[in-house]
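Subject: mismatched residue count in predicted assembly?

I count 281 residues in my input, but I want to confirm that the predicted structure covers every chain. Input:
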Amino acid sequence: MRVTRRYRFAASHRLHSAAFSEEQNRELYGKCSNPYGHGHDYVLEVAAVGPVNDATGQVVHVPTLDRLVSEAVLRDFDHRYLNLDIGEFQDKVPTSENIIRVIEDRLAARWRDAFPGDGPRLEGIRLRETKRNVFELRA
Amino acid sequence: MLLTRRADFSASHVCAQPGLSAEQNREIYGAAANPSGHGHNYVLEVTLEGEADPATGMVYDLKKLKDVIQQTVIDPMDHRFLNHEVPPFDRIVPTTENVAAEIWRRLESHFQSGPARLNNIRLYETEDLYVDYCGTAVEAVP
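Triage response: the counts match. Full output below for your records.
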């Protein structure tokens, strides 16, 4: 059974790569490369999969998941300028593709500490940048 | 082809195991263990899988699907206290996981034969927490 939990964070970013000229950046990223950046209300869905524990009736202890996501992601990302404030984006363009990968890495690195033994498995994550742009990654 | 129908019901529940202390239940279920219960507006999505009939152009009769959901899930659970009024939740904890599995059990028999099979159910307890269940034993955790 899969349990999915939804989280939100508000962050700004700028899509711009030093590897390209200004003109190339503009062509590639459009208004997303405007010099001062812009922001989104991101929606993050984290899916955990596993058997339902007979005693608790639960797949995942949701407060533990909340704490993990908060400490690994939301605390750093929420109300931040990703390009400047998040280490991983110092040398990586914060496209949603790259953001979802960074989030997955961060969750995966702490997952087994939060859910040891035969606890639930991180199945995948979904990142909604706007209501029109949604990205999914299976862990 | 997949076809999904949405329905909703409002119900109350309390999540606690009778064999545990109030402290232990609070640790596992948080505020959901408060003894007098609380409620949610559950949203249920029922997904069927099948091929569109060449004559009718339909995978399944939507009115029939609506009626099955209504009779097996909504009528018995809507505006009820699950623990007190909806078996088996007098015996098992009505977590979202267990409610989803029970809904699957109730719906499954209606789609054993006929044009479409039950593919998945998704049960939202809140907008921010939902369960997907497709009836199969969950894969072993590596």
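Chain A touches chain B at residues 1-7, 49-52, 55-59, 61-63, 118-121 (CB under 8 Å). Marking this ticket as 'not a bug'.
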